[in-house]
Design goal:
By secondary structure, the protein is α+β, with helices and mostly antiparallel strands. It has three helices and three strands.
Amino acid sequence: MGFSGEIATAMVEAAFKHASLHRVAGQCSPENQGSIRIMQKLGLAREGLLRDLHYGRGKWWSTVVYSVLEDEYGKISRVKGR
């Protein structure tokens, strides 16, 4: 998966196993295909597109939102042997 993916995996596992969170979410620019692939590989599902959410560097930026719930991640983890 690469270094970024390994870090993201460790963060999601820590969120559910050590911090006892119910939901983990991530967001990025719709053009950021690398981040989108990592979120998808981790089992996060796309929730939607927030259009023109942020203004910066002279333009409006949209963001895509992905998330996974604790029970969903538990099922994914067992299948992948984590």
